[in-house]
Structures are given as C-alpha cells and as structure tokens.
Amino acid sequence: MAKIKLEYLWLDGYFPTQNLRSKTKVEEHENFKGTLEEIGNWSFDGSSTRQAEGGSSDCLLVPVAIYPDPERVNGWLVMTEVMNADGTPHVSNGRATIDDDNDDFWFGFEQEYFIMDTKTQLPLGFPVGGYPAPQGMYYCSVGGKNTHGRDLVEEHADLCIAAGLNFEGINQEVACGQWEFQLFAKGAKLAGDELWIARYLLDRLTEKYGYYIEYHPKPLGKDMDWNGSGMHANFSNSTLRTCGSKETYEAICEAFRPVVKEHIEVYGEFNDQRLTGKHETAAITDFSYGISDRGASIRIPLITVNKGWKGWLEDRRPASNGDPYKIAARIIKTVKSAKI
C-alpha cells in the first residue's frame, strides 16, 4: 500500500469573482491508477467560504476530473463540483449549468494575466514611482529589456504539460509584465476543468518566486494607456465545424446581439474598465462581429473563412478573471438559440 496525496480543488462562494480553494487528503491505495472511480467525495466548511451558514456548514466536494500533480510525490490534483448536503448543485456551481453532456462544443481559452511583484505591488518591469517604456515592444518580445517573468512562465508551461493538460502555448502580451497561455478541450466542462487546474498550478508556483498573479482585467487603471487582460473564448460545435455556410455563421453571431447584457453579466468583474472600444476591444455596450476583426465583440477567424466557413468563432469580450464554466454555459445557450 502506498500513501497518495489528493489535492481537492473547488470554487468558493465569493461573488461575482470566485476564488480557488484547496485542501489535501492523504489516503492509502494499492496500485493507484489515477481515476475518479478510485476516490470518493469529501466535504468542507462552507461557512468559511461564503457557501453555507455556521449552523449547517457542510458542503460536498464531488470529484469531476483528476490529474497527476507534477510537483508532489504521489500527488494528484482533483477538480471538484460543490454540492449541497442533499446532492444538488450549490448555487455557486457554474459547471453544473453547462448544457453540453455530449461534448459537442469545443472551447479554446486564451488566458491573459499580469505577473506582479509582491514587494512593489507592480507588474514585473515597472519601476517604483514611474513607468516603463510605452507598450509596443513587449508583445512576443525576447531579451531582458522587454521580457519579464519568463522563468515562471516556462516552468508553468512544463507543469501543465506534465499534468496532462491540453496546453497549447504561451506568449508575452502587449503590456509590460503581461503574459498569456492557451488551453483547448473537446467538451465545455473539460475545458473549464483544465483552465482552473492551470490557474491553480500558476498561482501555487508564484509562492516560491515572490510574485502573485493579477487577473483583474484592467489592473493598471481604466484610464491608463495600457492593454487590459482578457480570456478570449474560441468555440465551435458540429454546426460551426462543418456547415460551410456564411449565412449560418452570421445567424449564430446575430443570436448574440439581443443578449449582450446576459453575456456581460458572466464575463468577469470590472470588465467595463477593459471593454472601452480601445486597446483591441469593442465597447461593452456594443455588439459587433467581423472577419479577422480584433476590435469586434466576436471575431470570425480568417482561417475559418479560408476553409469554406468551417471552423470556429472567438468571443473577445470575456475578462481575464471570468469563470470559464459560466462563460461556456452562456455561449452554449446562445448558440443553441440561433435560428439556422
């Protein structure tokens, strides 16, 4: 028998921006294979996470995905859903609202973020009491003058790949100290699971660097001439992947027009500071779509058009602090409502 460490992860009840929580269970197993069938549910004190009252504080953690933990000996990362004591989904459980049981929807998320120095409370590369050179040379840069935080970013990429995530890439972003990673999954729930696991690995990694990750979509202030951080949602279903029809794509895009408010409500807190119509964004009150248009609400990728209108769409509005579960759930609901 060997002892294994199971790190149970869940989202708390803070609103509108939930936080990751986790705790470790040590169990004895013989020939553990790393499957959900081998582990059980757990519970936690919901009164400490804004998910229950003190007089009836137990909430259930139900495992939904498991990955090897690349930083622990005999360690595993367990993504869970929060359930009420009676087994029904907790009100904070965005994963349970996703209507994609057949995994017809594929999602690729582009997670932008700033790496912050815990001592200065500033993004890497920012001098105390001043500013670095204006943005322009930071995007996809190389060299110590314009590139900051590469060691952490490279180590995070290695950890995600070692954990078995479908990790697709990294790049420095437009602002100083700003980076991005990309994940893709066939299935909306799986895409959300993997993004939260990747965020957990990134946040935990900062503990040994003296950094922290800032997911606020406009951490440098809404009036500053610096790009904000988004989490662009690339999505498709079997219709978008195979239809070969410009009219079908336009009908799906038009389905988003009357529900702008409903999407913005779940696309992340403080997103009004980022979606200003500047810095590669559409205004938060507007809705637009266009081929290869990074200033539109929804971009139709050029490669989709070149393949005969077979591919995917990119919703550029989600903020970097958005919940991928809630974002995916809302996108799926809208796509399914399209009159095609």
TrEMBL record:
GO terms for biological process: glutamine biosynthetic process. Residues 4-87 form the GS beta-grasp domain. Catalyzes the ATP-dependent biosynthesis of glutamine from glutamate and ammonia. Homooctamer and homotetramer. It is an enzyme of class 6 (ligase). Its EC number is 6.3.1.2. Residues 89-340 form the GS catalytic domain. It holds the Pfam family Gln-synt_C. Gene3D superfamilies: Glutamine synthetase, N-terminal domain, Glutamine synthetase/guanido kinase, catalytic domain. Keywords: ATP-binding, Cytoplasm, Ligase, Nucleotide-binding. It catalyses: L-glutamate + NH4(+) + ATP = L-glutamine + ADP + phosphate + H(+). Belongs to the glutamine synthetase family. It is found in: Cytoplasm. One of its GO terms (cellular component) is cytoplasm. It comes from the Bacteria. One of its GO terms (molecular function) is ATP binding. SUPFAM superfamilies: Glutamine synthetase, N-terminal domain, Glutamine synthetase/guanido kinase. The keyword Aminoacyl-tRNA synthetase does not apply. This is glutamine synthetase. The keyword Nucleotide-binding applies. It comes from Siansivirga zeaxanthinifaciens CC-SAMT-1.
